[in-house]
Specification:
With about 290 residues, this protein is of the alpha+beta class. It is about 30% helix and about 20% strand. Bound molecules: zinc ion.
């Protein structure tokens, strides 16, 4: 799933290639992906992409004041196409293609564009055509951006004190902090040497400062690594940069202990016992239920 660093990189990628170009057509292949009806997606035709930005994990193309906003969800991706001039209009079908955005041809006759695709059967990719990004409920309710200047250790401390939830869940909650998902919350907690089940309100000032540092450095590093990469190369880069997430059974690169996981109904978390939980493995609820 693309999180803040990947979406930031996609925004940068599109900024270089799409800004200043006119939209020729928006072809919606998966109707369920389009969450708004007025104005219609066809209203984007003829407008020029004036800027591209990110809100949490949402990507936002400002087209002369009309916004094309998308959330790629768990299995969605953006694929840049150098030339779609020979591609026939797409028809609704069963493939991964959800939405195709065609840009007007340049002097050389090349008509680039991009596809939003979604693998798998769970279709969660969402597209909104709105006059103001805040009309998108998931954007309006976003918490502060962790890379913004006002996301200070003090600001994080206030957020943590206001809640008695487990830190892993809190970091992933888009209404609390924008842009961090399952992968980077695992990474942040590993860097901060903190148990994912620690209760947020119990952190000391020193732990808040450590967590803040871990959030900012982990995300900044990931943004740096992703910078300049083509959209298609981002997934592999994300995976290679992760230290614990998705690495169950591998050795922790910091201490050499074996990375473990806790499974939930629809996700799992990974952590290093030596680095994060005083060497004690966390109870895997799914497993303990089975043993009862
Ligand atoms: Zn370790």
């Amino acid at each position: 799933m693309p999180e803040l660093p990947e979406v930031e990189s996609l925004a940068e990628f599109l900024r270089e290639r799409a800004v200043g170009r006119t939209i020729a057509a928006v072809e919606v292949v998966a109707f369920h992906a389009l969450k708004t009806f007025n104005p219609p997606a066809s209203a984007l035709g003829g407008l020029t992409v004036t800027s591209v930005s990110r809100h949490g994990k949402f990507l936002d193309l400002d087209c002369d004041g009309l916004h094309f906003v998308t959330h790629l969800a768990r299995a969605g991706w953006l694929r840049w196409r150098d030339d779609l001039s020979a591609a026939k209009p797409v028809r609704p079908g069963k493939g991964p293609l959800a939405v195709r955005v065609r840009l007007a041809p340049d002097d050389s006759g090349m008509a680039p564009g991009f596809d939003l695709t979604e693998a798998g059967t769970q279709k969660r990719l969402a597209v909104y055509v709105v006059k103001n990004p805040d009309e998108v409920p998931g954007v309006a309710s976003l918490g502060p951006d962790p890379l913004a200047a006002d996301f200070t250790p003090e600001a994080l401390g206030e957020i943590l004190r206001a809640s008695r939830t487990q830190i892993k869940g809190l970091l992933r909650d888009q209404k609390v902090i924008a842009g961090i998902g399952n992968a980077y919350s695992d990474e942040v907690l590993h860097v901060a040497k903190m148990s994912p089940f620690k209760i947020s309100a119990t952190l000391t000032d020193a732990q808040v400062a450590d967590l803040h540092e871990a959030i900012v450095t982990t995300l900044r590093d990931a943004v740096e690594r992703a910078r300049g990469l083509a959209a298609k190369d981002l997934k592999a880069e994300k995976k290679s940069g992760l230290r614990v997430h998705g690495r169950t059974g591998e050795k922790c690169e910091v201490c050499g202990d074996t990375i473990r996981e806790v499974s939930f109904a629809d996700s799992s978390l990974q952590y290093c016992p030596t680095c994060q939980t005083g060497g004690k493995p966390l109870a895997d609820r799914r497993l303990s239920k089975l043993l009862k």
